Amino acid sequence: MEQNKIICISCPIGCRMTIQSKDGKITSIIGNACPKGIKYAEEEFINPLRILTTTVKVIGGELPLVSVKTEKSIPKRLLLKAMVEIAKIEVKAPVKIGQVIKDYLLGTGVSLVATRNIKRVDSNLFS
Amino acid sequence: MKLEYDLVIIGGGPAGLAVALEARRNTVKDILLLERDKYLGGILPQCIHNGFGVQYFKEELTGPEYAGRFITKLKDCQINVKKETMVINITSDKRIIAINRDDGLLHIQSKAVVLAMGCRERTREAIAVPGSRPAGIFTAGTAQRYINIEGYMPGREVVVLGSGDIGMIMARRMTLEGARVKAVLEIMPFSTGLIRNKVQCLDDFNIPLKFNHTITRIEGGKRVEKVTVAQVDKNLQAIPGTEEEISCDTVLLSVGLIPENELTSEAGIKLDPVTRGPIVNENRETEIEGIFACGNVLHVHDLADFVTEEGEIVGRAVGEYLKGNRKFRSQPIKIFPGDNIAYVVPQHIDFIVPGRKKIKLFMRVKKPEERVKINLIDDKGRVLTAYKKRIVTPGEMVSVFLPEVLLDDKLKNITISIKRD
Ligand code: SF4
Predict the structure, then answer these.
(1) Domains and CATH numbers, chain B
(2) Where is the FAD/NAD(P)-binding domain (chain B) (predicted)?
(3) Integer Cα distance of B177 and B195 in angstroms
């Protein structure tokens, strides 16, 4: 028997739930004040997903970085690994909002896209 | 350059952008938007995280994407924008003095003015943390700008003071970028930010959040070396004997935001001591007719979506004001905060509007409470209407509707109070 504590974020009440499980299968969920909590707890327990947002280095842009996000959520356990991968990327200005910066991040099938426009300039603004 | 306008908006963040677009939709012709930064969007371009737009666009966007939607629309409807332009004075007769490198000193006359300057962060000075004065102490928003816009990493071992949203978001951001966030300290017994941020920014990365704790000392020579933290009692005073030292090279402060109202005060507009923004009517119009305020300059919002909503209220109101067909009530209805309510916006209701069904009132509570009734009470202590809420917390703005049918001619005051249900 294992126990996990999960806080529901589906509404401001923030129910503190306890999940009991055996061999990775949920046996009981308690502490939720409404059915939404169950759904949330199940998702969080089986495969917690997050959108990762960070920045990527830009060459020849009006700013040295462009903000990016994973187009869809990726498994929570891959967040730090993805950061290491993303740190290696450089992109040439101009960058367009929505532009794919990297396909198949860590083989997840999820791509990394730009979340802002960066114009090209000859000299960097902050250099 | 043209120096006379129907509407001048000061500040190109989410509030100013929404005003510009909505005013244009309401047939306001000559609009000028003044922005002191190189870019529009205010603070949004540096808020690279997700969670914007859920209310307004019904989809989840990052800060730069949310701003981008409005900036694109603004270009489409050809509103005059002057960036890198600093407003240095506004007068009560709506003259604006501004400066920039191209035009020099500008004297602009407008029929309506919207204050949309936003807010700024409270600093170490504002909360008076004792100790030495080394490098490595940042407000969370400054660190956010360094990391997300300028590409600098402010430090490696971090203690965050304050569990406001920006503090928690920066704890995650610095962790993702390789720093070690040793603790987030909250002087209150509850988080002042959204639960979602506590879970996804702190719990996800096992960052400890210590309630009833504060920094009592910051020490270091050239750079921060350590902080002393202590538990606090009910009066928020450090309890002797609970002190503990944490070694770190960086302290981030997320200890509140203050509306930026120097220009407002210079124009002679009265501020509400609680919101620290101007006192306004339901049109978000200040004491001076034709000068409006919205967004974080009026009161600090927790979602950009609510700022947009408020900007749109002002955009429509400016349209009505310029048409000149507004009808005042014989006397305004004043709205007062009662039990467990810190403030209510708007502070008074001035107009008779044919066809209006309800007025949305925004408020912030002082402390968390569960299973409550929000009572709207008239001068004689009668409950006009009441709303049940499962929970209220200071981290989430509360809004209720005031039905128009309740507003008879004699009504002078409404007090909003929270009672246990
Ligand atoms: S379980 Fe229901 S009531 Fe509890 S936090 Fe989740 S959505 Fe809110």
Answers:
(1) 1-121+256-325 (3.50.50.60), 123-255 (3.50.50.60), 329-421 (2.60.40)
(2) 5-301
(3) 23
What mean pLDDT is reported for chain B?
A: 95
Q: How many domains does chain A have?
A: 2
**Any domain includes A119:** no
Instruction: Give counts: helices (H), strands (E), chain A.
Output: 2, 10
Partner-chain residue, chosen from B149, B150, B391, that has the shortest CB–CB distance to A13 = B391
* Statement to judge: residues A6 and A39 lie in one domain: yes
Q: Are B4 and B32 in contact (CB under 8 A)?
A: no
On whether the pTM is more than 0.80, the answer is: yes
Testing ligand 1's pocket by substitution, the residue of A5, A13, A42 carrying the most ligand atoms inside 8 A of its CB is A13
- Give the A:B interface size as CB pairs under 8 Å: 76
- CB within 8 Å: B64 and A97: yes
Taking CB atoms and an 8 Å cutoff, what residues of chain A touch B147?
55
State whether A74 and A109 are in the same domain: yes
Q: Cα distance from A54 to chain B (closest Cα, Å)?
A: 7
A67 and A18 in a common domain: no
A77 within ligand 1 shell (Cβ under 6 A): no
Residue-wise pLDDT for B152-196, tens only, equals 999 999 999 999 899 999 999 999 999 999 999 999 998 878 888
pLDDT for position B92: 95
Sign of CA dihedral B148, B150, B151, B153: negative
Pick the closest to residue B252 from B279, B218, B281 (CA basis): B218
B417 CA from centroid of ligand 1 (Å) = 25
Are residues A90 and A37 part of one domain?
no
Distance between Cα B187 and ligand 1 center (Å) = 26
Residue A30's domain comprises 2-46
Contact assessment for residue B160 and residue B175, using Cβ atoms and an 8 Å cutoff: no
